[in-house]
Amino acid sequence: MSVPRALTSAGSDSGGGAGIQADLKTFAALGVYGASVITAITAQNTLGVTGVLEVPLDLIAKQIDAVVTDIGFDAAKTGMLASAPVIDLVAAKVREYGLQPLVVDPVMVAKSGDRLLREDAVAALRELLLPLATVVTPNIPEAEALTGRTIRSEEDRRQAARDLLALGAQAVVIKGGHLEGPAVDLFVDATRLVELTAERVETTSTHGTGCTFASAIAAGLAQGMNTLEAVREAKYYL
């Protein structure tokens, strides 16, 4: 009996609440074996990011090679990729090894407001990685940055999701955490538009929720769920 395997490529969070640490904890909680590619090291806690060191490209490539050629994978997920060269490298490795299904969490800003993606890397994320995504999981500010569209209404959010589909992603989940009222995430693919609603939990413990959500989707995909099913289960888990 084999255990499903998921590979995450993301930054390390020294506080343990987000990034690689959140991904691996989520994989383990959901019964999936997690392997990791660390793209950056951050000095970080729930209050903020005080330092970032990008991992050299050669070492990122070697981490991916080491995992894929030995352990293998059933799904992959990307998080903090920091810069255009890192995105370019990871996208090339996704194509080389067929790292599918692929969950792309377009991490741009930490919950504390600290930037985790360089300004000039947004275009690389849009042009190189989104066309490879099985599902992309932006929050509203990230969706605005990727589409150049201001999202104020529900119709704005639906159009932004369609814009992201047009960039090549197979499915899009625009999260509703930045809205008022119930937590409503919008799932869109080529044939469906589905609103996923849950009661909003009033808490300050939100550090790493985006990473946890995306890695839970990857865990579901690794276990053989279809995309919408994996997203539903991930929302329930979160």
Could you explain how this protein is built, in words?
With 238 residues, this protein is an alpha/beta fold. It is 38% helix and 22% strand. It has helices at 19-29, 57-68, 84-97, 122-129, 140-147, 154-166, 209-222, 227-237, and strands at residues 5-13, 33-44, 49-54, 75-78, 102-104, 135-136, 171-174, 183-189, 193-198. Strands 3-2-1-4-5-6 form a six-stranded mixed β-sheet, with helices on both faces. The chain has a three-stranded antiparallel β-sheet with strand order 7-8-9, sandwiched between helices. The chain is globular. It starts with a strand and ends with a helix.
Features:
alpha/beta; six-stranded mixed beta sheet; three-stranded antiparallel beta sheet
Radius of gyration, whole Å:
16 Å
Classification by helices and strands: alpha/beta
Q: Classify the helix fraction into a percent range.
A: 25-40%
Order of strands across the main sheet: 3-2-1-4-5-6
SSE layout and pairings?
Layout: E1 5-13, H1 19-29, E2 33-44, E3 49-54, H2 57-68, E4 75-78, H3 84-97, E5 102-104, H4 122-129, E6 135-136, H5 140-147, H6 154-166, E7 171-174, E8 183-189, E9 193-198, H7 209-222, H8 227-237
Parallel strand pairs: 1-2, 1-4, 4-5, 5-6
Antiparallel strand pairs: 2-3, 7-8, 8-9
Helix pairs in contact: 1-7, 2-3, 3-4, 5-6, 7-8
